[in-house]
């Protein structure tokens, strides 16, 4: 197995994409550090695979001193992270910009942007020193295509994509890869429930659709990581077949 012995750290592994990605990477031969705030979920995830394949590690992405303390705070034998999957993130609300709660904006920025850049900054020196590694981040189609109510969420995802592209510029000449995966409508996760705060509203988002599923994202992550070392995928945009980008809007009132 090509990835045998390598270590991947997946943020936000307690639900949705991160949970599916962690399990998929174990199947690919990685040992996985699974992070998130809900410790019991991390323990349950680790219990789904052979002992020693997943290391549950509680980490709040907005706790910058904990994020900056990586990798030294990881248990011995788990510190040399080969692959960082920046997956933890959230959207809050769909209100128009002038109606939003500024605290929601702050939380999205501190998780999707600040936490993501800080953990990348913490783990990148090790990858560069070993001249081997891969940083893979979850962007979104919302980072490319605006829609009403996406305001700051979409902007955080645009940031992620440009951060990954700029990383590649800095990393030119190093065997450290950087990739954004930007999915569109994806069900089977807690994303819409977190965003809308209500299960029935969240279910309505996917009603009558065949959305992407967390396993589709995990499959894409495995594909990107499994490509030969001389191949860097910069950006993957993926949508379910039932979705397309909308046209520009014109106000005719
Ligand atoms: P989920 O809500 O199912 O999972 C989000 C994960 O992020 C959870 O494991 C949660 O863990 C973690 N998380 C959130 N805040 C923090 C925090 N402060 N510290 C640590 N972990 C945190 O969402 P998805 O799986 O759907 O989304 C995963 C990523 O993919 C996100 O970045 C999202 O923006 C992006 N995305 C989602 C799409 C979708 O349609 N679902 C489409 C495109 C991109 P815990 O609560 O335990 O801390
Ligand atoms: C999640 C996809 O369209 O809800 O990033 O913004 S969308």
Automatic annotation (TrEMBL):
Judged by the first EC level, this protein's enzyme class is: oxidoreductase
- Per the UniProt entry, the Enzyme Commission number(s) are 1.1.1.-
Keyword set includes Kinase: no
Protein's name in the database? SDR family NAD(P)-dependent oxidoreductase
Similarity comment: Belongs to the short-chain dehydrogenases/reductases (SDR) family.
Name the UniProt key words of this record, in alphabetical order.
Oxidoreductase
* Listed GO MF terms: oxidoreductase activity, acting on the CH-OH group of donors, NAD or NADP as acceptor
> Organism's domain of life?
Bacteria
Q: Which gene encodes it?
A: ydfG
InterPro entries recorded = NAD(P)-bd_dom_sf, Sc_DH/Rdtase_CS, SDR_fam
Gene3D superfamilies xref list: NAD(P)-binding Rossmann-like Domain
């Amino acid at each position: 197995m090509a990835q045998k012995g390598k270590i991947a750290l997946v943020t936000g592994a307690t639900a949705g994409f991160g949970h599916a990605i962690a399990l998929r990477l174990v199947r690919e031969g990685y040992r996985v550090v699974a992070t998130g705030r809900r410790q019991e979920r991390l323990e349950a995830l680790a219990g789904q695979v052979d002992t020693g394949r997943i290391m549950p590690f509680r980490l709040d992405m907005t706790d910058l001193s904990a994020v900056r303390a990586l990798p030294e705070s990881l248990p011995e034998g788990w510190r040399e992270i080969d692959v960082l999957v920046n997956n933890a993130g959230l959207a809050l609300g769909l209100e128009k910009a002038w109606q939003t709660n500024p605290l929601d904006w702050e939380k999205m920025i501190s998780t999707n942007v600040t936490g993501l850049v800080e953990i990348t900054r913490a783990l990148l020196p090790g990858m560069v020193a070993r001249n081997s590694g891969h940083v893979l981040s979850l962007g979104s189609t919302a980072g490319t295509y605006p829609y009403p109510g996406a305001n700051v969420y979409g902007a955080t995802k645009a940031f992620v994509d440009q951060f990954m592209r700029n990383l590649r510029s800095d990393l030119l000449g190093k065997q450290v890869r950087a990739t954004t995966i930007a999915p569109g409508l994806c069900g089977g996760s807690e994303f819409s429930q977190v965003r809308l705060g209500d299960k029935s509203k969240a279910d309505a988002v996917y009603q009558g659709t065949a959305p992407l599923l967390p396993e589709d994202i995990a499959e894409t992550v495995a594909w990107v990581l499994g490509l030969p070392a001389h191949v860097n995928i910069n950006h993957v945009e993926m949508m379910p077949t039932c979705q397309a980008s909308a046209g520009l809007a014109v106000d005719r009132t």
